[in-house]
Amino acid sequence: MFNSLIIIDNDYLKDSVDLVEVANQLAGTEESVVSGLGINLVDKEITGFDSLICVDLPDLQLKDSRVLTDIIQQVQQTYEFDSIIVLATDFGRMVAPRVAMRLKVGLVADITAIDTHQKERRLIRPAFSGNMLASIVCDSTPIMASVHPNVFHFQGTKQPTVSQFAINQLKPSSIEVLAITQEAGNQDIREAEVIVAAGAGYHADIADLNGIATKLKGAVAVSKPLVEQQRAPREIQVGQSGKTVSPHLYIALGIYGSMQHVEGLKNVKDIISVNTDEGAPLNYLANLVVIGDAVEFINKLTARLQEGT
């Protein structure tokens, strides 16, 4: 039997449930038993886990990674899970290494695949800026891994058994909330069915793509170089260090297609790659390849769409 613990992120419930697939793959040929650790899960309907370990602390500062680390440590000391899996959100990336250090184990961050052979478990992640894949053998317990949202998918309706966990005394949070600002209601690129994505080969203003993205009822995204050049915010970056997307249509404008970027594309139905470089790796993944300037392509596509209105 292989017991796994998944840390449930209240802001990403569906993505947290998807991590059950990670736990099942880690189990390999052993029976997989998956528990979710939920904090203040008031009136939230969650299925797919074998059990839910609930911690109810209404006054808890959930965004303090040190407090959450204390809770996870207490739960692990009680149940002794074989693996602990964390969603690699901005907050999860603060929690996971703290927990790993507290438990004196290693952490494999941003995994994209799992390989189990007999009882050897290998966690696979991009390395060297996405230029190669590293296969990491995990022989410590618990195995700790973080996973990007939308990389793995799980469909399950199992009703979990629910138990309450009594936390020992916690140190008070040192974080003070000074203000809360509501973010603009822009579409999350992970939810878009059509994505118009620009890379280093797209030399016009990224904002110019908003019109055609709206026309296609989609969203604008970018590759890593444009974020590094400060031409676009990281919130719309696709790739291993950005977000993982699964649109029906992905229009790649001047995107070379490094492994780091390709790892951000999961279950994409159709890819149109526009590039002046015939040998761009993304061209070999695309359903349709256009050899030419990306800006010229967008201008002509925009004109053609306007003719159809």
From TrEMBL:
Keywords for the protein's UniProt record, in alphabetical order:
FAD, Flavoprotein
Q: Name one GO biological process term.
A: fatty acid beta-oxidation using acyl-CoA dehydrogenase
Pfam (any one) = ETF
How does the cofactor attach, per the note? Binds 1 FAD per dimer.
GO MF, one term, reads: flavin adenine dinucleotide binding
Enumerate the spans annotated as Electron transfer flavoprotein alpha/beta-subunit N-terminal domain: 4-179
InterPro entries to which the protein is assigned, alphabetical = DHS-like_NAD/FAD-binding_dom, ETF_a/b_N, ETF_a/FixB, ETF_asu_C, Rossmann-like_a/b/a_fold
Binding of FAD occurs at Q237, V238, G239, Q240, S241, G254, I255, Y256, G257, S258, M259, Q260, H261, N275
SMART domains, alphabetized = ETF (SM00893)
Could you confirm whether the keyword Secreted appears in this record? Answer: no
Q: Is Flavoprotein among this UniProt entry's keywords? A: yes
Name the needed cofactors: FAD
Q: Which domain of life is it from?
A: Bacteria
The text of the family note is: Belongs to the ETF alpha-subunit/FixB family.
Q: What is this protein called?
A: Electron transfer flavoprotein subunit alpha/FixB family protein
Source organism? Vagococcus allomyrinae
Its taxonomic path starts at: Bacteria, Bacillati, Bacillota, Bacilli, Lactobacillales
